[in-house]
Design brief:
- 69% of the residues lie in helices and 6% in strands.
- The chain is mostly helical.
- It has 2 domains: 18-76 and 86-124 and 137-238, no CATH class; 250-359, name from scop, CATH 3.40.1690.10.
- Helix 3 (40-56) crosses helix 5 and helix 4 (58-74) packs antiparallel against helix 5.
- It has helices at 2-15, 23-31, 40-56, 58-74, 83-120, 138-145, 148-174, 176-180, 187-228, 232-243, 246-267, 303-315, 324-333, 345-362; strands spanning 273-276, 281-286, 296-302, 319-322.
- The chain crosses the membrane at residues 41-61, 98-125, 146-169, 189-219.
Length: 363
């Protein structure tokens, strides 16, 4: 009973997702568009750099804005009311508006692309746009609404609004003396003051949102890594899919070794001599002067395989010679089916000469 309970506990432990995701699973998740990403980071960058652009291109905005109003009040209001003049007015207003907004639009687009590239790099996938009926599951939708992630997002929003509210309050409170004097100032001074305060608030809030978005990105990264975790069984299953079942592969390798061994043993009866250690090594050699440039190793092995080679040699009346250094050298340097190297020619030639001499006497 205790043994069964232990086995069940181990199976439950194997199913827990405690292991980091494999590169294959990460790649598959990326292809589906599932990446660690904070939607707030690009928005924070856009807000910050948009307000910063007013500081950088303030002269440009002022010039085009003044030109727009100048052309309206000095030129178009004095013209006769006609379809041609009205069309010219709207075309001019559209052109001036585009020239006025072009820097902001360009900065916004570049910042949005940069904010996303900074998080996930270059990614083009249409998988999130596919129609999936699982997204319409009301039960899963209810779970998402009342999940811990929703609570975390709510608390994050409350924290963000609290910090922004405090920044706005502290900034306006610091300008309270100027606010009280606005009633006595001309319209252009009021406009300059309001613009200055708005720009300060925009840059401050943008910086705060960037800092909060970086924390949000770290949180999203943590949640994403947690979601991608795999169990030990998942990793084994993935390995089986990609590399094949290790048990089956080991059986295939074993079968291949047996087949190679069988082919090698079938070549032993063709040998001229078997050189031994005498017990641990055995190398079968053959030399055909008409078809071979040098003697060739037909079979080799150690221990049990060496014993089999010597047994087959004995059954086929092949001469077996004991030469420890030569047997070791041939086994280490020459693969099956290869000719012997030049540095072993002399030693092998002496062995073959002795073999041919013995065979000659026997005949």
């Amino acid at each position: 009973m205790e043994r069964i309970r232990l086995q069940l506990d181990l199976q439950m432990f194997a199913g827990e997702k405690t292991e980091p995701a494999t590169p294959k699973k990460r790649q598959e998740s990326r292809e589906k568009g599932e990446v660690a990403k904070s939607m707030e980071l690009p928005a924070a960058f856009i807000l910050f750099f948009a307000f910063l652009s007013f500081y950088l291109f303030g002269g440009y905005f002022k010039e085009h804005l003044m030109q727009l109003f100048r052309s309206i009040f000095n030129d178009y209001l004095l013209m006769n009311l006609s379809m041609e003049n009205v069309g010219s007015l709207f075309n001019q207003l559209l052109l001036q508006s585009l020239l006025l907004l072009a820097p902001i639009l360009l900065i916004t687009v570049i910042t949005a692309i940069f904010g996303n590239y900074l998080q996930i790099g270059f990614l083009m996938t249409g998988d999130p746009l596919k129609m999936k009926f699982s997204k319409l599951n009301p039960i899963q939708g209810a779970k998402n609404i009342f999940s811990m992630r929703t609570v975390a997002d709510f608390l994050k929003s409350v924290l963000k609004m609290s910090i922004i509210g405090y920044v706005v309050y502290s900034t306006l409170w610091a300008e309270k003396s100027h606010l009280m004097d606005l009633a006595r100032l001309p319209l252009d001074s009021i406009f300059v003051f309001a613009s200055s305060v708005s720009l300060k608030l925009g840059v401050k809030i943008g910086l705060i949102l960037i800092v909060l978005a970086l924390f949000d990105y770290m949180y999203q990264k943590y949640e994403f890594e947690k979601k991608l975790r795999m169990s030990k069984q998942d990793i084994k299953d993935e390995y089986k899919k990609t590399e094949g079942d290790p048990l089956i592969k080991s059986k295939i390798r074993e079968k291949q070794r047996r087949m190679a061994m069988q082919r090698m043993m079938q070549e032993v009866p063709k040998a001229d001599v078997v050189i031994t250690n005498p017990t641990h090594y055995a190398v079968a050699l053959r030399y055909d002067a008409q078809n071979m440039q040098a003697p060739t190793v037909l079979a080799k092995g150690t221990d049990y395989i060496a014993l089999k080679i010597k047994q087959i040699a004995k059954e086929n009346r092949i001469i077996t010679m004991e030469n420890k250094p030569l047997a070791r050298a041939l086994y280490a340097k020459v693969d099956i089916g290869e000719a012997i190297p030049a540095d072993l020619f002399q030693a092998v030639a002496e062995v073959l000469a002795y073999v041919y001499k013995v065979k000659g006497k026997a005949n």
